[in-house]
Structure formats: structure tokens, C-alpha cells
Amino acid sequence: MDYSKMRVLVVGMARSGIAAAQLLYKLGTKEIILNDMRDREAFSGKLDDLLALGMTDRLGMEPDSLIHGVDLIVFSSGGPFWREWIKNARAAGIPCVNELELAYWVTKADFVAITGTNGKTTTTTLVSEIFRAAGKVSHPVGNIGDPACTYAYELQEG
Fold first, then answer.
1. pLDDT value of position 20
2. Residue 47's closest CA among 9, 8, 12, 72?
3. Are 140 and 9 in contact (CB under 8 A)?
4. Could you give the CA distance from residue 128 to residue 123 in angstroms, rounded to a whole number?
5. What is the chain's mean pLDDT, rounded?
6. What burial letters (b/e) apply to 57-66, b meaning 16+ CB within 10 Å?
7. What is the pLDDT of residues 72-97, one digit of tens each?
8. What is the pLDDT of residue 145?
9. Three-state secondary structure along the chain?
10. Can you say whether residue 21 is alpha, beta or left, with left for phi > 0 and alpha for psi between -120 and 50 degrees?
11. Which of 19, 80, 99, 157 is 20 to 30 A from residue 150's alpha carbon, by CA?
């Protein structure tokens, strides 16, 4: 995918949103729009480096008011995908993916996804250690590690 011509809205500026914005920047994305319901002051400078790179500040705004004219929306993995603004964006033909899916699009690395209600952290830790014991590189990502986008750029090569 050629990100150099894309306007991308990143919604939710916690750890995964920041990692997604950093990945999009490394990919040469034309315009990266940062959005969160909280305003800039709520981040205590955590977004200053991103804004210094020329990313667009649309903090403290409803995402629905920002979807027009963007080519892709990346939202926090913890964000509910049934929100009205996501439905509106999809109805307008705008792809909406979470941070994990963006990382998957970019990387050539294999993914093992662990889901469920109970035991995910323990299972993820165990699986990661099994891979490491087998001599593989393993990056547990998500709620116990870094966001997946943290590693995706460096793992583009197969």
C-alpha cells in the first residue's frame, strides 16, 4: 500500500495510537491527523514529538467531524468498532482498522493472536517464551507488551 498519498486519521492517542502514528510517519504518510476526545493539555507533552513532525492536531474533537476527506482511519485496539462514527466512515467507503491490523498489513512477520476472556496474559507469555526457547524472535504485543506497530516497520522484510 502506498501511504505517501494518503490522509490518515488516527483516533485514540494512548500507546497504540501513538505507535500507529509513528509507524505511519515512517511509511511516509502524506498527512497524519491525531484525534482523541481529550485535548492537548491532557497529554502532558506526550504528543509533542509527533506534532513536531508535522502531524495535524485535532484533539478534543469528535471523530465523526473528521472522517470526510481521509483515506484510512486507524483506531485504538481497545476502541469499540460499533461506534457511530466508525459506521459512518465505513458507509462512506473509508477503511477503518485498528492498530493491530495496521501492523499486520505492514509487517512480513508471522502473528499469533490470543483472544478470550481469561488467561490471555499467561498464555501470551508462555507462547512467547516457547518461541524464544526455539530460537525465534518473539515480541509479545498488546496489553502486556508494546503496541504491534512498534515493531512492524522493522519487520517488513520476510
1. 98
2. 12
3. no
4. 8
5. 92
6. ebbeeebeeb
7. 999 987 666 678 899 999 999 999 99
8. 83
9. CCHHHCEEEEECCCHHHHHHHHHHHHCCCCEEEEEECCCHHHHCCCCHHHHHCCCEEEECCCHHHHCCCCCEEEECCCCCCCCHHHHHHHHCCCCEEEHHHHHHHHCCCCCCCCCCCCCHHHHHHHHHHHHHHCCCCCCCECCCCECCHHHHCCCCCC
10. alpha
11. 80
**Sequence-separated contacts (24+) of 47-55 with Cβ below 8 Å:** 47/13, 47/18, 50/18, 50/21, 50/22, 50/25, 53/25, 55/21, 55/25
Q: Scanning the structure block, which residue is given the C-alpha cell 526457547? A: 133
Cα separations (Å) of 127 from 60, 70, 145, 153? 39, 38, 13, 23
The segments of the chain whose pLDDT lies below 50 read none
Cell for 62? 469528535
The whole-number pLDDT of residue 79 equals: 64
Are the C-beta atoms of residues 29 and 3 closer than 8 Å to each other?
A: yes
Q: What is the pLDDT of residue 133?
A: 97
Burial bucket for residue 107 (CB in 10 Å: 0-12, 13-18, 19+): buried
